[in-house]
Design brief:
Chain lengths: ~300, ~300
DNA sequence: GCTGTTACATGCGCGACATGCATGCGTCAT
DNA sequence: ATGACGCATGCATGTCGCGCATGTAACAGC
């Protein structure tokens, strides 16, 4: 009694009680990336957070692990030895944890997806339908954003964020669908007028919150004259305005295509090359339940491929 | 660009970023002990803390893991499957972390040991000498306690606690040395008086803070008459009082033996059986740096075996 | 059958830790 | 020389996990 020899002379397992195992994942990321900043991005941390974590790892292992080498950092010998067994141990651990734990049939969580309201306009209905179909107990909540900030990704209330490929974020991202700018016009416009004609002759209906900047910047670069006929705050007004009062508007193709269900519209390709406008899904690996994310990713792809 | 396929379709390693790996050690303890309370003790947690942790594990793994079965709990099938790979993964992880990180030759930490001042009286000098010898840069700090409380073990400032075997604590403990009560008397007492004679005829010098309760309780149970001659607050006064003014006192043998270096004393065995008074070292596995604890344990054994 | 005991769950307050921001500092490139 | 890049750090903040007190269920003893 009072002599827990098993605990003391055991296989060293109980030593782990005093070790912060959560450091191991950032550690592997750091060793594999050989860069504090990249490792931070990979695990969904900020650079200072990873740096602080590195300090803790150094205290834990009694080794510098990485040393400054000119611009970047290099691994110490000890770190080199660690990388393989660490990866192995973590893979084994991952295998333990990765039993499926998200059951769409019964899960009652609130699925929160952040996106612009134009993306919601495109994806929302199909998304809601598919979620209702495959996860009938879950609730879809769409959080409207205009421009993504750091807080958008670190907000625990948000599962995934859908943003245009032009917006940077340090977190893993995956292309959902490509998109482009098209010219939306009234079907009453002269049939022989091409897209450029429409842009120059028709008054523009401009949504002042979204998608305005760079297509118009291109027009101005090229010296294409255009006239703003109306500024509206809600892009949903546009199809009705265009259909009933004429004029043109610039929209993502997918938005325009969806608008066709609301009003009869003429759609023409934008006559100049534009940077990509694909929609990416982005998520913070630190906050995400990965079984759920995997499922949601597949579902979003279903939605996107049906466009 | 913007498509980190490696992160998404990798070996599932990045999933771990969102997993609290610190749950795994309590989890293994729970699965191996089949008891929330015992598992808590093993890893140095309280029962409620382990229960909370169990809740988190259940959320993480989507399984109840243990179900109430009459008095105790039983493992679910899923939990049964988990135990072996989990132990394996943690052993592998332990192997990674367990490179020696405590170097006595260079370590400058403050080594804090909590004990009663009578234990410090016994062990202090040898302890200080051995630490100065083997860890010359380290500092020994003895924290005096009277009776250990929960806070004594959860105090991060305390590395190990030395307590009598009579005091319960939920943490791992190991016997340092056995001890017993002896009768300390002046060498001028009649040589033919045995211990019982001394106890009944001589005035007792009693330290009112430590070790007084149960030897005297035994005397009272047995109906042995005794007379308290003096109450002192500092037990270090006792050897001088006994040697110069006569009387008897009850002390642990090791304390009495150490007192012999201060004054000439007569020591007799206590004439009745008493519960064990061994001194145990106790430490909280959650707070301890195990390399250091291992070293300190060996050092304390060195000290104790030299008594 | 009632009470005492044991074991697990839970509400709550508190403390500690990790995170992120702002900033500093060193290195490299132009 | 100056800007850009990458890592470190002081600091404030938020959150998580711990422990206490308490609740609840099952078993044992008389």
């Amino acid at each position: 009694m009072g002599h827990d020899g098993e605990d003391v002379t055991g296989s060293g397992l109980d030593r782990l009680a005093s070790v912060n195992l959560n450091l191991l994942v950032p550690l592997l990321a750091l060793l594999e990336e050989c860069s504090v900043t990249r490792a931070a991005q990979r695990v969904g941390l900020s650079q200072p957070a990873m740096s602080h974590a590195l300090t803790r790892m150094r205290r834990l292992l009694g080794d510098d692990l990485v040393v400054r080498q000119g611009a970047g950092v290099t691994l110490t010998p000890r770190a080199q030895e660690l990388i393989a067994p660490l990866r192995s141990a973590l893979q084994q651990t991952a295998h333990i944890v990765n039993f499926p734990s998200f059951d769409p049939a019964t899960d009652q969580r609130v699925i929160t997806i952040a996106m612009t309201n134009s993306t919601a306009f495109v994806l929302g209905p199909r998304l809601a339908r598919l979620i209702a179909e495959h996860a009938p107990r879950a609730t879809l909540r769409i959080r409207t954003i205009t421009v993504p900030t750091e807080a958008t990704f670190t907000d625990k209330g948000v599962d995934v964020v859908l943003i245009s490929e032009g917006h940077y974020s340090p977190y893993p991202r995956e292309r959902l669908y490509d998109d482009r700018i098209v010219v939306v016009a009234s079907p009453d416009t002269p049939p022989d007028a091409n897209a450029l004609d429409l842009l120059t002759t028709q008054p523009h209906i401009v949504v002042d919150t979204d998608g305005r900047v760079f297509p118009y910047a291109v027009l101005e670069e090229k010296g294409i004259p255009y006239r703003v006929g109306q500024l509206v705050s809600d892009f949903l007004l546009v199809p009705f305005l265009v259909a009933r009062a004429g004029g043109v508007a610039l929209f993502r193709y997918q938005v325009a295509a969806t608008m066709l269900t609301l009003a009869d519209l003429r759609i023409e390709e934008f006559p100049f090359p534009l940077p990509g406008l694909g929609i990416d899904m982005v998520w913070n690996p630190r906050l995400a339940d990965q079984h759920f994310i995997e499922w949601l990713r597949a579902l979003l792809f279903d939605v996107a491929t049906g466009l």
